[in-house]
Design a protein that fits this description.
The complex is a heterodimer of chains A (about 170) and B (about 240).
Chain A: H1 2-9, H2 11-18, H3 20-41, H4 47-78, H5 100-109, H6 113-155, H7 157-166
Chain B: H1 2-17, H2 21-41, H3 48-98, H4 107-113, H5 117-125, H6 138-153, H7 160-203, H8 221-227
Classes of the chains: A mainly alpha (about 170), B mainly alpha (about 240).
Chain lengths: ~170, ~240
């Protein structure tokens, strides 16, 4: 019990879960396990339907995690360039930064706590929007193209077809 | 335009102060609720049955996820955070007694073991509430001031506001993870079961109870054989 309480009340754990990248990654990894398992357990559907849906979900979750890992960090590094589009931050000098290094330096010099909070929030908002575009728009389109060849390979249909052709 | 700016201002302030897990995951679920079915529909190689099942599943899962992340996580967070904070102070008080830093009869021990859960919640959450919604009685204020005074004496203890906010964030993430792993796919399966039952009932042929059952019997082979007098020849059984 004390272990659970210690974990839940720990400031380190709170800092870790505050990051939207960590939130998306941990949720996505758990979904990659949970969703295909429950799809395969669903007895209302036929075997073919379950296989298609479970493969699609597994592929989607694993592929989206990889795509997310590959794309989110470069995007996050450059979100400061878009801060100037927020009218709430127009009085802040940080938005004029031209390089990531300059941005970090200006951020360190900033003493206004409200502005710091808003900049952090704006970065998180852009990160959420970027995650949405990566996970919900780009990845499903790619997975749709990949699902059938992978499903065929998994079930060995391709080899069967080749053998049939040879025969 | 002004309304939009105010909304964005509220959103970025909220995300900057307390970026709880359910905000990001619910936003992503909303994105997926719109775009995932489109991607499934664009798959030209799958059969109609596979597509309709995957489409139903995608739509239901993301819909349930959106509702669950907002509703269930919020309920868990609101009901569990203060009791866990109270448990934290109780355990810390016991530790302090073990290390001979406190007496059982001391005021500090009594305060740490009898935390006012409503006070700790109101104290931490007042920052996010409008002036009209703020609730904080005098006794609650005294309790929190006493607690803060005790916490300042012991560097190992977190102050009530930070403790509440930290615990809230972690509980939010843990509940999102549990929902994602088990509860959402489980509820989706149940919904699909109910939907398939309804669909199978709709597909069953309807029997009209008002009309009388037909009295005309089907014309049997025996009758045919007798009528045509072929039966006597037994040509069919040869």
């Amino acid at each position: 019990m004390s272990l659970i309480v210690n974990f839940l009340t720990s400031p380190q754990a709170a800092d870790f879960v505050q990051n939207s990248t960590c939130q998306v990654l941990s949720e996505g990894c758990l979904k990659a396990v949970g969703r295909p398992t429950f799809t395969l357990l669903d007895k209302t559907a036929t075997k073919e339907q379950r296989k298609y849906s479970a493969t699609k979900e597994l592929l989607y979750q694993s592929f989206s995690m990889a795509a997310f890992f590959a794309l989110i960090f470069p995007i996050k590094k450059n979100t400061f360039r878009l801060l100037k589009f927020f009218p709430q931050l127009k009085d802040c000098d940080v938005i004029n930064a031209k390089t990531a290094k300059e941005y970090q330096e200006k951020l360190k010099q900033l003493t206004d706590k409200t502005m710091l909070t808003k900049i952090k929030g704006a970065n998180e908002l852009m990160s959420i929007i970027a995650s949405g575009i990566i996970l919900a728009v780009i990845t499903p389109q790619i997975v749709t193209k990949l699902v059938h060849p992978i499903m065929n390979k998994l079930s060995g249909d391709e080899e069967k077809n080749k053998l049939d052709k040879k025969a | 335009m002004k309304i939009l700016n105010n909304t964005i201002d509220k959103i970025i302030t909220r995300l900057g102060t307390s970026n709880d897990s359910e905000i990001c995951t619910a936003a992503l679920a909303a994105f997926k609720l719109i775009f995932m079915p489109f991607a499934t529909m664009s798959d030209k190689k799958s059969t109609k049955k596979q597509k309709s099942y995957a489409l139903t599943r995608d739509f239901l899962t993301e819909g349930i996820a959106l509702a669950g992340y907002i509703g269930i996580t919020k309920a868990i967070k609101n009901n569990l955070t203060a009791p866990i904070c109270s448990k934290y102070y109780k355990e810390k008080a016991k530790e302090l007694i073990k290390n001979n830093k406190l007496d059982i009869d001391s005021f500090e021990y009594k305060t740490l073991t009898n935390i006012d859960k409503v006070a700790i919640k109101n104290h931490a959450m007042n920052e996010f509430l409008s002036d009209n919604a703020k609730k904080f009685t005098k006794t609650q204020d005294t309790h929190i001031k006493n607690l803060e005074a005790i916490v300042s004496k012991f560097p190992n203890l977190q102050n009530p506001k930070d403790l509440y906010l930290n615990t809230k964030k972690t509980i939010s993430h843990v509940s999102v993870c549990i929902l994602a792993l088990t509860l959402i796919p489980f509820i989706t399966n149940k919904f699909i079961y109910v939907l398939s039952k309804i669909k199978s009932q709709d597909n069953e042929p309807k029997t009209n109870t008002d009309t009388k059952p037909s009295t005309i019997k089907p014309f049997s082979m025996a009758q045919y054989m007798n009528k045509t007098r072929i039966g006597g020849l037994n040509v069919f059984n040869r």
